[in-house]
Amino acid sequence: MRWLRPLAITALCATVAACSTSPTGRSQLLLLSDDELNNMGSQAFNQYQQELPAAGQSSQRYVQCIADAIVAELPQEQQRLDWQIRVFEEDSPNAFALPGGYMGVHTGMLDIATTQDQLASVVAHEIGHVLAKHSNERASTESATQLGLSVLSSTAGIQSDQLMGVLGMGAQYGIMLPFSRRHESEADTIGLDLMARAGFDPRESVTLWQNMQQASGGGQPPAWMSTHPSQGQRIEGLQANMSGAMNAYEQARNNGRTPNCPRP
């Protein structure tokens, strides 16, 4: 039934005229407006700021310096977003991006990303999620998936909650999680190019994930059950795109883009 999914998405796109193309040329289903997503991003960001304490000003300046250098390389339309980045006192090595240009970095990530270039790979990756409208695509795909399961249940006359549970799990592992892994890989690709054009060394993105491997101690779930590619898969994907990134990096350095963000 795997071949049915693209047909279903294509049919839905034709019906609602909601197909778009990501920055890497991949077809997307986008059902929500930018205003809707940006409003939700703003609300979620405000809630996050209420729940977690802010880090010190030196950490904020450090991360802001890196973010500013990367945002300066975005097209003018994307630069006009209200880009905001905050550092939160939280031990987990995590970062996030929300529609509208809202980003957060946990202080635990600063322990993993030991150089400005490594942290730039994190920030550029999160910006990549926003540029590719992954939040919109994920919400749209989930809505389409739930609609499809309801139609299938009604058409087949399925009454068993257990069978519907199996169908739901099939949708999760067959559609939603692979889509999320695809988003992560695409954000890696976009972020690698962004950091290189901003003058950050793209090779440090690989070092970052090597640091993550050491910190995790091999306790990851299997890649097919994860919302993210495995760390080894991410390193392979980054290395596959490294040649083009290095060309962009050398050009940026030759053009005087040499960011210097003092680490606290």
From TrEMBL:
Copy out the cofactor comment: Binds 1 zinc ion per subunit.
Report domain Peptidase M48 positions.
Answer: 59-240
- Signal peptide positions on this chain: 1-18
The record's listing under Pfam families reads: Peptidase_M48 (PF01435)
Any idea which UniProt keywords this protein has?
A: Hydrolase, Metal-binding, Metalloprotease, Protease, Signal, Zinc
Q: Which cofactor does it need?
A: Zn(2+)
What InterPro entries does the record point to? Mito/Outer_Membr_Metalloprot, Peptidase_M48
Family (UniProt): Belongs to the peptidase M48 family.
Q: What is this protein called?
A: M48 family metallopeptidase
Record the organism.
Vreelandella gomseomensis
